């Protein structure tokens, strides 16, 4: 996966890798 600047939520994943699952679920919704 590539985390671009399109979605600020995805950018937060870089800062907190532990939140990747939660953020991914939010993006899918």
Report on this model:
- The chain contains two helices and no strands.
- The chain has helices at residues 8-15, 20-28.
- It is flat.
Strand and helix layout:
Layout: H1 8-15, H2 20-28
Radius of gyration, taken over Cα atoms and rounded to an integer in Å: 8 Å
Number of strands: 0
What's the number of helices? Answer: 2
Q: How far apart, in Å, are the first and last alpha carbons?
A: 18 Å
**Oligomer description:** single chain
Helix and strand pattern: HH
| Main sheet overview | none
Structural class by sheet pairing and helices: mainly alpha
Contiguous low-pLDDT stretches (5 residues minimum) are: none
Helix content: 55-70%
For the structure shown, list the relevant keywords.
29 residues; mainly alpha; 2 helices
Can you give me a brief rundown of this structure?
This protein has two helices and no strands. It is mostly helical. The longest helix has 9 residues, at 20-28.
């Amino acid at each position: 996966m590539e985390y671009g600047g399109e979605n600020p939520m995805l950018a937060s994943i870089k800062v907190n890798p532990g939140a990747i699952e939660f953020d991914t679920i939010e993006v899918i919704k």
